[in-house]
Give the backbone structure.
Amino acid sequence: MQIVAALFVENFEITEAPGPAARINLTGAMFSMASPAPVPVTVSPHLVGLIYCPPSEAGNGVFEVVFRRGLDPDEEGDPVARNVSPFTVEPGKFTYRLVRGELEFTEYNQVFAHCRINQGPWHVVPFTLLPPVPEA
């Protein structure tokens, strides 16, 4: 199986189209956001992982996401957050996993979502917390 895409999004919706075929509506895809308050703060962005299962595979897997401050998935120290989600998908089809990270920030910086299926290669998605936008 393979990760087709992984993104932080504001909203995620699946609709049916003729065929029957599924349509995935992603809105507010982002790699950064303004903090809702000064640090320290906890934000909970949604990460959606789109997964494809080739017809020759069984269709059972585990989607793992480890949020870290650095790019190296094997770095020392505790992760910021971690989620493990088993899934089943029909061979030859797609599925998705929606992960809501509870990310604590003590300064404005980046967190990297390291995503993988089973023990496969890591797919890295950056997320940057920016200072709050002053109200007008």
Summary: The longest strand covers residues 60-68. The radius of gyration is 16 Å.
